[in-house]
Amino acid sequence: MTQDPPLIAILDDEPDIRRLLADTLEDAGFRTASFGRATEFEAALRRMAPDACLIDLGLPDRDGLALVHRLATQSGAAIIIISGRAQVQDRVTGLELGADDYVIKPFDPAEVVARIRARLRKPARETSRNGQTASFAGWSADFDRYVLTAPDGAETPLSHAEAEMLRMFLDSPRRLISRTQMLESLGGTAGDSFDRAMDVRISRLRTKLGEDPRNPRLIKTIYGAGYIFLSEVGWS
């Protein structure tokens, strides 16, 4: 059976931008669904599950950052902000709230396509890791459902960004991962905003894993070098 191309949801109140993005993405082989208002977009999410969402922050009927945060905690879709807000603090805030990437208007449509592909590209895995569920230290992570399950059975949702980072660690257990390697694996852009976003995601993962920030058991910081995930991992 042929798999449908990835579905990209576009939320922007400017018709010309919606049309430009939709035409470019469809030419690149994606399916698209476009919306001019947040209420239309949220209603559509009840009947569709996009693989990625392009979200403008300047919406007429909703705070774009609040919408990004809700999507990050309730959806497994990759989230890319497309905004005219070019200040570093705007980018940092968007990434901290759960966005995977941030594109500043005006933009090159080909760059947006490249960033979507980077976000949707699954990391290559060894044959022993060809599953979507990982088990480690009594925990399990289901990357189909974006759910983290504690040893006592309690379930916690993972945002796409958190799941992406956790998978990076689980694919390379007991190996040092430098910040440069993290940047390459997560498809980010070098700079203070992405560095801070990585730190925030690691902090959130540690919290969800019940880590003591002063003495983490699973995600260990090697100062000046990077991070090591300190557990064996099984895939199914």
UniProtKB/TrEMBL annotation:
The modification 4-aspartylphosphate is found at residue 56. Gene3D superfamilies: 3.40.50.2300, 6.10.250.690, Winged helix-like DNA-binding domain superfamily/Winged helix DNA-binding domain (1.10.10.10). Residues 7-120 form the Response regulatory domain. Residues 131-231 bind DNA. One of its GO terms (molecular function) is phosphorelay response regulator activity. GO terms for biological process: regulation of DNA-templated transcription. Residues 131-231 form the OmpR/PhoB-type domain. InterPro entries: CheY-like_superfamily (IPR011006), OmpR/PhoB-type_DNA-bd (IPR001867), Sig_transdc_resp-reg_C-effctor (IPR016032), Sig_transdc_resp-reg_receiver (IPR001789), WalR-like (IPR039420), WH-like_DNA-bd_sf (IPR036388). GO terms for cellular component: cytosol; protein-DNA complex. Keywords: DNA-binding, Phosphoprotein, Transcription, Transcription regulation, Two-component regulatory system. Pfam families: Response_reg, Trans_reg_C. This is DNA-binding response regulator, OmpR family, contains REC and winged-helix (WHTH) domain. It comes from Paracoccus solventivorans.
